[in-house]
Amino acid sequence: MAERQGREGEGRDGPEALSGALRRGAVKKNVAAIHIGGKLTLLQRKLSNVLLLNAYDTLLSQATHRIDARTLAAMIGYNSNDIDSLRDALRGLAETVAEWDMLDEKGRQEWGVSALLAHARLRDGVCDYAYSPALAEKLHDPQVFALINLDIQRRFTSGHGLALYENCYRFVRTGSTGWWPLEVFRRLMGVDDSEYYRSFKHLNAKVIKPAVEEVNRASNIQVEPEFRRLGRTVKELRFSIRENPQLAMLDIDDGQAARSQPVYERLRAQGVSDRLARQWIAEHGAEAVAEKLDWVAGRDGVRSPVGYLRAALDNGWDKEGEGAPAAAPAPAEPSAAARAAAQARAEARARDEAEIDERAARRAARVARFGAVAEATRKRNPTQRDADRRLMLGRLTGEMEREDFRRHGWESALNARAIFAFWEEMQPGLFDDLPQMPPE
């Protein structure tokens, strides 16, 4: 089963041809697995989620899983042919230790440790990888899952933001994470070995506040920190959580999966808006929408096909038309006020979509620039690479920025502008053939 899915995903049609588990768009994350990933970079954290999604159906029945490398890169938003960076990220997962401490099915305390990946290999454009049996069992446990949406994770630009989202999302129904000691929170964010973040002032300014801002801006939940003090010293924190009404799951989806469906083009040809077409495909499934389109096309006397299609989908009319009228009534001529309101809604949708497109263009430009930087560094010899890093560190004035660069190197999202400026100076014209960065 998993090998069949893997082979479907590795077809040479490119990453758009997703199949099997990869079409779900969401991965079930074991609570224990989420809690050990704090030290992962943003790229590694996204990568671990996609690998788990690809392997989930056969975690316990198959030792090795496969996925096309281009598909893997596309799903983590890394649109680059730089296999070196993908190789480094896989190496990081294999070198990262997962530790869990939880109750087993009989209520007994269980502690365990394992590498996040037992092995990973890139060969002929295909990535094959495996989990240890003990970790695979924990990852597959259906009682302790949080559902992580991969369209959401692509919107994150910092590892701290995505780590906070993963650790908070599973509590959305209870409304609060409960109290975490600060040392636990530092471990979840991957900064427990940093003296700089022993200071709550630094932790709050550089980790908590930016991560909360990104979660509230980029995801389908909103979080707010609360602090518990002993005297004047903060000892614990918790996050209240609620759904974000301004960012429904549909708005977060970048739309590429829906737009790649043949039924999307049919809907657009009928005059259905881009946003509504993607909504119907997401809510009802491509096959159901295509079936209703065929059915409406075969009906006589339908004066408003889109309105009739909407009614068919909303009311669940079957392909025999059970419960449907003989033909959809012609819509009444809208009033001037209704036309003005419709125009205002259309303009608001256009502004929203333009903003989404601008953010997507900005992300794509950043990814392209990081890819060019990775390629430029790959061509440097070891002595030059060491000198480049020292020069870059010398340009960074803030301790937070310097530490982030030490941890993530040329992939440091926090230092993106400084990194791009450095390499533009080092190799003028390096970014000339890349998409322009839209203004912030």
What is the compact description of this entry?
This protein has about 450 residues and is of the alpha+beta class. It contains 20 helices and 10 strands.
Instruction: List low-pLDDT spans.
Output: 1-17, 30-38, 142-146, 248-254, 326-330
Radius of gyration: 24 Å
Series of secondary-structure elements, N-terminal to C-terminal: HEHHEHHEEEEHEHHEHHEEHHHHHHHHHH
Note the main sheet.
Answer: 3 strands, antiparallel
Count up the helices: 20
Instruction: Tell me the overall shape.
Output: globular
The strand order across the widest sheet is 2-6-5
Structural class: alpha+beta
- What average pLDDT do the residues reach? 76
Question: What do these coordinates show?
Answer:
By secondary structure, the chain is of the alpha+beta class. The protein has a 3-stranded antiparallel β-sheet. A 3-stranded antiparallel β-sheet has the order 8-10-9. The model is unreliable at 1-17, 30-38, 142-146, 248-254 and 326-330 (pLDDT under 50). It has helices at 2-9, 31-35, 42-55, 69-75, 83-95, 133-140, 150-153, 159-169, 182-189, 200-218, 249-252, 256-259, 262-269, 274-284, 286-297, 305-315, 336-378, 382-395, 399-408, 416-426; strands at 26-30, 65-68, 97-103, 109-115, 119-123, 126-130, 145-149, 180-181, 221-230, 233-243. The chain is built from 20 helices and 10 strands. The relative contact order is 0.08. Strand 9 (221-230) and strand 10 form a beta hairpin.
